[in-house]
Model the fold of this input.
Amino acid sequence: DWREVRPDVTVVPHGAREWAAEPDFGRERRGLYYVGSMNRALDLELLRAIAARCDAGVRVIGAVPAEPLGEGIHAVGWRAAGDIPAELADAVAGLVPYVGDDFGAGVYPTKVYDYLLAGAPVLSTPLPALQGLPHVRTCATADGFADGYRWAMGLDVAERRAMREYALANGWSQRFETVRELLAPVEPTVFGGDA
Done:
């Protein structure tokens, strides 16, 4: 959580202290979730196709367009960061159905850690930033997402708990320390005048 490192930085608190309580990993899970806004990274047609192929449907937490989302997609709307863990407690898996353009090639969706903290694996289009990340399954088509959904339905409590442990070990504080260590040996450069 960046608030622990720099209190003057305001960010959406993915993986923040709102996640202190461990979810009930043994509870029945019923749906696929997408957390985020309807922005240019989201492939809305793919999201509709995923909902059509998965009997659980898709719940969207975030801003939604004025147009109908489609059959099987339920718009939850914005939630406070502290309410997202309870919403995701029902997630079979979290979705990252992003378009494969230049924007998508450079995006690092931090919602991945919200999903993992809830014990929900991530089903994503093949984004470079997520390649090789544990508990993330990349899917190139809606049928691939449907296969991923069926796989996620079969995960047990230990597998879901391991996702949370991975996310807890890779929060903002740990990432900030990694960046600080990498930059420590670099001498600052001063441009155009005295420092």
Remarks:
- Strands lie at 31-35, 58-61, 73-77, 91-96, 122-124, 136-138.
- Confidence is low (pLDDT under 50) at residues 6-13.
